[in-house]
User: Fold these one by one.
Assistant:
Number 1:
Amino acid sequence: MDILLITQPQLKQNEAHLITKLFDAGLKRLHVRKPAHSALEISCLLDAIPENLLTNIVIHRHPKLVADYGLAGYHHMDQEELRHCKGTSSRSIHSLSNLSSLDDKLDYAFFGPVYRSISKKDYEPKVALPKIKEVLTDISKNKNRPKVYALGGISRKKIIALSEVGFDGFALLGSIWGHSDPVNAFIKFNQTCVESFSYNFDLVR
């Protein structure tokens, strides 16, 4: 199961240093989503991150930065027109109809919230997990479908349940940034994920 991390919406002091430590701890892909900040402000953040890590970062809302910094790709909002950028192309989706008609041109998508959001007040799921499972099972008949990552309210104890629904991984935000030590929170989530699937694998061998 893949683990992706989304930044907090507001720029934070020493954020570049913290991001670097998260990559050192095993993070593979970071989504920089800061809707209230300009491309210039986000450029200052990217400038402070080691250049070798930029190819693991996906940007939201500012597609020009993908080429400017050699980023991993661009992430689209739900109804945003598909842009042609270098790297991966992904999207946030929130309805079963959009999930069932997932565009093959995407590399992956976020679907949620699957549980009550940790970081957003009153942001709750509108679709039950069994319904999501039905759609994921159906679209998985297409072997080339984009990966789908669960978003919203994801804690360590929900890893197995979400994998059984058919998600390919998790897009985390509040479960990491809501802790006083985000790096340690990420390490624990990652360890739990590895241990959970190792245990399940041993059971079915």
Number 2:
Amino acid sequence: MALDVNSFKAIAWVTTAVFVIISLVSKGSSTYRFAVLFLAPLLWGVYFLRKRLHIHPCHFAIFATALVLHNLGAFGTYGQEYYGLEFDTYVHFYFGVAGGFIVARSLRCCFGLIGWPLWAGTAIVILGLGAIHELIEYASTLLLGPEKGMLKLNSPDAKTDTQKDLLNNLAGTLLALAIYSVFRRSREPLHTAADEERLTRSAVK
């Protein structure tokens, strides 16, 4: 237990330090240069909810790297293409992966969901969170204008940006669910044997 707590703290503090460093050394858009003011509370909020949501340290680390990936926008990565895909595509896909792992484990541990209900529930939650993020993007543009806002209205694909982002979120979530399901299935025999051993010991006592 202590090792897990130390792992969570180390991930949170290192990630926060990376946010601060990016803010200090970057010279890109102020929208992302000062994103630490939003990303750090989000990171630590998830940290403090780790027990309630049954978050695994590895999943927390993936989530933290997703936030760092997004924060690289301070270096002007948004709007650029890498290996034929826009940077925004990678970010939304990876957030789908990170969120998919966390939500799937939380729904399984908190509500006992397995099989298709787990897949459907995870996808619905991630798409809901993605929709909230898209609304925040739109609100930032209304408040700050098209230059400083998160939604770039002068972009060629501005009209389909929301649909594309949500599709990438969903694709990442489905990949996370596939990996999570395979991993859980490979561990089920081990858990079953351990459970039977505990029951046997309890019966003997």
